[in-house]
Amino acid sequence: MPQLNPEFFVSQLFWLVVTFSFLFVFLWRVSLPRISNVLEKRERKINEDLSAAKELQVEASKIQETIENQLKQARADASEMIKSSSISLQDKAQVELHKLDKELEAKIDESAKAIEDSKNELVSQIQEQVHEITKLTISKVATFNVTDDEIKKAVSKTEGSIN
Amino acid sequence: MAAKDSPLKQFEIVPYSNTELGSYDISFTNSSLSMVITVAVITLFLTLTVNPRSIIPSRMQLISELMYNFIAQLLSDTVGDNGKKYFPFVFSLFMFVLIGNMVGMVPYQFTFTSHIIVTFALAAVVFIGVTILGFVNHGIKFFTFFYIPGVPFYMHPLLIPIEVISYLSRPISLSVRLFANMLAGHTLLKVFAGFVVAMPFFTGALPLAFIVALTGLEILIAFLQAYVFAILTCLYINDAYHLH
How many interface pairs between A and B have CB atoms less than 8 angstroms apart? Predict the structure, then answer.
């Protein structure tokens, strides 16, 4: 077995020491610091980004809070406005209605009065005509004269039935 | 079977140069070349894929970062905060073994992790380092590591030698595990490759299919053994901090 041939033991050991020492020193001094630098840099960057993100999140939640507060305020204002305006509208409507009622009542009174007046006039006209007719009839039919006062009296007795 | 067709031939070391340092032969061999390729692949990949200015990684950079995080996670899971100091070493060890195994999976490439001397040297570094660490952290109290509390006193004469032996066999088990896995896997591949040639007509397709499946398994083992090597190193470091 060539492995047990001591002929090249020293040579192999020598070259092992040379190559491995070089590898060790090179990795220790050059390659590994490079890699660890990159890793640290990335770690730092990630941490920075994370903290920045956290800060932004806090800011965002603050903004959201103010927006919510403003919305709440606006909603409260709006309902307040609606309430007050509906109350004032109701009041106004009440006043208008009242006014209208009064006007209508006055008109009704006026009309009633006018009707009464015209009725009275009509009644007096009818009485007059009845008086005339009665006088004419009596003068044509009867042989006696009747005074106006007597006729008036008789006609006024019928007044209740005309009404 | 002739020597040139042996499935073990792939483990032979071929020197490319004839260099001597003092009285020692330090020739550049196919094993050395494999190590150099491994180190070049690791350093180039980890350096070129990582752009230090990019927060969002490219796919290649993500691979490097995943490897980094994989070992960092492993170390923090097993050792905790004390483990950060040893991260470059454990990472280098893991990458060296992993890419060494993977380079060995390339056809005609030499697998240096299949040589016991290499794996034993790596394991010995871990073992000696961890033992020194234990003495630095606990001083003479480190020897209480072999004393298991809560056991009947008459068991100690038996248990303490067992503990000492198991501690001393750590580098052996650590190195033999990796070496044997690589040796067995690559030998098996070559044996089946020999069957492909040796079998008549188209029946050679059967061992060929087997080689394809085995290659997948070997890649899994290459990763697994590197992982085992790294996690055991972590556990030994942890032992050096917390004796029991």
Answer: 134
